[in-house]
Write a structure and sequence with these properties.
Number of strands: 14
Mean pLDDT: 74
Number of helices: 12
Order of helices and strands: HHEEEEHEEHEEEHEEHHHHHHEHEE
Largest sheet: 10 strands, mixed
InterPro entries: DUF6615
Number of domains: 2
Low-confidence stretches: 1-9, 207-222, 276-284, 298-307, 364-400
Pfam families: DUF6615
Keywords: Plasmid
Length: about 400
């Protein structure tokens, strides 16, 4: 597949997805080559190179940092404030973790067990506290080396399989899906996180394939990832999701980051919380339908799920322009953060290293992502899981 390029002007959504994809490719090669030449690439240097590349590629992206006296108080790698240009904003906090391959775990694991020495708290608990208090979505960016035949996600972005060299996972997945030992969440093996990990370029990718609703009778490739994302997108004109223009990169980032968080819930949770919407379907007989497709189809054909209800579960906060903290306003104006301005979470060792702002306006007209999708006969686009058969359904693209 030709490598997507981002040199030509285009919608921020497409340029951002492409830039994330290209950085994932490059970071994966650097991790691989660093091991070969014994010049190992660390998380901090990789993050700095990625943010520099993004700032050079996306003119609407501004990056700032606190003064040196704040450097010992980092609880996240970067904090990202995003708008579609409507003076409404939401917040992501992101922690990077590089795949570790010690002799005891040659298949790889992510060091989630890390503790902050000054506070004694586990890093992920600080990240969660930070996100809950500020109404942000907390994500992990998982850095992975380029390796032939190794998959880092069960899901494939339309931009290409090498995009999974950096994947995104909600911090809630680690908090809710993995047990604690003596109060600490253990390091998590690669094999255990694949189903929850999404190539991070998909967060800003507007090509989202879905079924017509209701789907026709017969086998359905619907997955947990798909119906979580589908549920998030329902009633898009209501208060929470309807805040943002559905054709903007901000909308894609918001929907997909909330979907990441929703995946931390079990399928039983979805069924329990949305059971009252499914009563009409319960009486419909579909002879010969396999049991494993029933619950997924029950949720897929309901038109009544409310995105506001799900957003309330996810505790995301939408900010007005006037509500932005002073340090965000400084970065947005492309000015240094004043020396006397401190991050509100610095006292609990949770201030981020970098502050990013992005105004991602709506598109003027629909634009196809760069590059050619991989093997669309045998592979469906995000948010479907990669399948070995061709789907029997006709897909449509939602207006976004």
């Amino acid at each position: 597949m030709p490598t997507p390029t981002s040199s030509a002007p285009g919608p921020v959504m497409t340029r951002l997805a492409t830039a994330l994809f290209r950085n994932a490719q490059s970071a994966g090669r650097n991790f691989r080559d660093g091991e070969r030449h014994n010049i190992r690439q660390g998380e901090e240097g990789t993050t700095e190179r990625i943010l520099l590349n993004l700032a050079k590629t996306i003119p609407e992206l501004h990056v700032g940092a606190f003064s040196h006296r704040e450097e010992s108080r980092y609880g996240a790698d970067w904090e990202w404030w995003i708008s579609d240009g409507s003076n409404k904003w939401f917040q992501l906090v992101i922690q990077a973790k590089k795949l570790q391959t010690p002799k005891a775990h040659p298949a790889g694991k992510y060091k989630i067990k890390h503790k902050i020495r000054s506070s004694g708290m586990q890093q992920i608990d600080l990240l969660d506290l930070y996100a809950r208090k500020s109404g942000a979505q907390s994500l992990y960016a998982l850095y992975n080396p380029a390796a032939r035949g190794v998959r880092y996600s069960d899901h494939r972005c339309c931009l290409g399989p090498s995009g999974d060299r950096i994947t995104a996972v909600s911090a809630d997945v680690f908090l809710k899906r993995f047990p604690r030992t003596k109060g600490l969440i253990d390091d998590v093996p690669l094999a255990a996180i694949r189903e929850y990990a999404l190539p991070w370029s998909c967060l800003a990718n507007d090509r989202v394939a879905t079924h017509d609703v209701p789907p026709p009778p017969g086998p359905s490739p619907l997955t947990f990832m798909q119906f979580a994302q589908w549920t998030v997108m329902q009633d898009a004109n209501r208060d929470s999701l309807g805040t943002f223009d559905s054709t903007s990169a901000a909308y894609s980032l918001l929907v997909n980051s909330v979907t990441m968080k929703a995946l931390a819930q079990s399928q039983d949770w979805f069924t329990r919380n949305y059971r009252h919407y499914l009563d009409d379907w319960m009486g419909v007989e579909r002879p010969g339908q396999p049991e494993e497709w029933k619950d997924a189809q029950k949720i897929a054909i309901s038109r009544h799920e409310s995105s506001d209800e799900l957003f309330a579960q996810q505790r995301i906060r939408i900010f007005d322009r006037a509500e932005l903290p002073a340090y965000v306003s400084a970065v947005l104006s492309n000015e240094p953060i004043p020396e006397d301005v401190r991050h509100p979470f610095s006292e609990i060792d949770a201030a981020p290293k970098q502050i990013l702002t992005l105004i991602a306006p709506p598109r003027v007209q629909p634009v196809e992502p760069p590059g050619e999708p991989q093997n669309l006969t045998n592979t469906t686009c995000y948010p479907f899981r990669v399948t070995s058969h061709q789907s029997p359904f006709q897909y449509r693209y939602l207006g976004r």
